[in-house]
Amino acid sequence: MKVIQLCIRVPYPPRDGATIAMYNISKALLQQQVDLDMLSFNTNKSFVSVHEINREFADAVSIQTVDLNLEINPLDAFLNLFSTNSFHIERFRSAEFESVLINKLRQTAYDIVLFEGLYMSPYHGIVKHYSKAKTILRSHNIEFVIWERLAAACTNPLKKWYLNLLANRLKQYELSMLNSFNAILPITPVDELHYERLGSTVPKLTIPIGVNVSDYEIHPVGEFSLFHLGSMNWMPNLEAVDWFLEKVYPIIRNKDPQIRIYLAGKDMPERIFDRHDDLLKVEGQISDSKKYMKDKAVMMVPLLSGGGMRVKIIEGMAAGKAIISTAVGAEGIEYTHGKNILIADTPQEFAEEILRLKQDPQLLNQLGLNARKLVEQCYDNAVLGKRLTGFIQNITGN
């Protein structure tokens, strides 16, 4: 089976939600002996030299990249106000990418073109024109829902108006693409149900973000500590950390001032770095998430908006970490509150669950062990790869 994967950015190194999702689905396909090509944007914000890519992965996948500058041009943003087009989608239109894609479609008879996310969908028409391949959307999120949630949470009237404008235009575009693909691969059952309610009638299979469970070891933890890990150039993560620092952190400090907290992620704002002290350790981008998590006790995921599935929760579970999350943060994961994760949606609840784990080491340990079992059963790449290739074979009739 010949597949080409169209990626929003180079999925290496796999260190955030999007790159891990793309990299792991590539690995899952390769494990099933799929012949895989990849055409990816190489963005200025996440630029990767092809020479930096793991040699084993680069040898297994034929990778080609096209540079894309995602810096927001204020003039383009202003002019878009007088258009009906989604500004989010327009930023990913590239004549060079289109040209390279056409050449690849002319040269190779693909069975499947896998679109990694909605922002690659502007090239769907090109694929249909130049290829007989079946097209599959790998839906990382229902994108407009993220922006609707951000708009709902915004208190600045002008910014709220603009976020609603962005959300509405993105929604119209997303709805227009619902039944264009031959199939959709949502990342969560929640998203699959949402697609059905929006009117999608094409075949769907939920394929969550997976991990190679054998890559994760469970390590004993020393002192009790909290950590958050996430790219801060994604607005829901920034919103989440701000909420934690403004609403939850004061409660914790008042009840137990000795709890150590770690914050890490790409593009960490200076205003958060400025809060660094002996008990609030603020770091920027880290190179190895497994090493970062190794000696820390509790992962926190205080998301208030966003969509899809948080891969960091799956990674934390695979590493046997106790996790406290909001319901939004854990959306799409088949968890059981109190068994393999703790769910808390208000500042008071979030702080109480943190203090509860501090006082109950047995619960802390059992949550981590149960979380690991959940990942072994539901989120191992070996299991997901077999399901995915079976689904693809049904779509292609092979």
Q: How would you characterize this protein structure?
A:
The protein is of the alpha/beta class. It has 2 domains: 2-210 and 380-396, Glycogen Phosphorylase B (Rossmann fold), CATH 3.40.50.2000; 216-378, Glycogen Phosphorylase B (Rossmann fold). The chain contains 16 helices and 12 strands. The protein has helices at 17-31, 55-60, 74-80, 87-90, 95-107, 124-130, 143-153, 157-176, 189-198, 235-255, 270-273, 289-293, 311-318, 347-359, 361-378, 381-396; strands spanning 2-7, 35-43, 62-68, 112-116, 134-139, 183-186, 225-229, 260-264, 280-282, 298-301, 322-325, 342-343. The strands form 2 sheets. Strands 3-2-1-4-5-6 form a 6-stranded parallel sheet, sandwiched between helices. Strands 9-8-7-10-11-12 form a 6-stranded parallel sheet, sandwiched between helices. The radius of gyration is 21 Å and the shape is globular. The mean pLDDT is 93.
Largest sheet: 6 strands, parallel
CATH superfamily of the largest domain: Glycogen Phosphorylase B
Please estimate the helix content: 40-55%
Mean pLDDT: 93
Count of structural domains: 2
Structural class: alpha/beta
Corresponding CATH architecture of the largest domain: 3-Layer(aba) Sandwich
Rg, Cα atoms, Å? 21 Å
Quick gist of this model?
The chain is 45% helix and 15% strand.
Overview features:
398 residues, alpha/beta, Rossmann fold, six-stranded parallel sheet, 16 helices, 45% helix, globular
Q: How does the SSE layout of this entry go?
A:
Layout: E1 2-7, H1 17-31, E2 35-43, H2 55-60, E3 62-68, H3 74-80, H4 87-90, H5 95-107, E4 112-116, H6 124-130, E5 134-139, H7 143-153, H8 157-176, E6 183-186, H9 189-198, E7 225-229, H10 235-255, E8 260-264, H11 270-273, E9 280-282, H12 289-293, E10 298-301, H13 311-318, E11 322-325, E12 342-343, H14 347-359, H15 361-378, H16 381-396
Parallel strand pairs: 1-2, 1-4, 2-3, 4-5, 5-6, 7-8, 7-10, 8-9, 10-11, 11-12
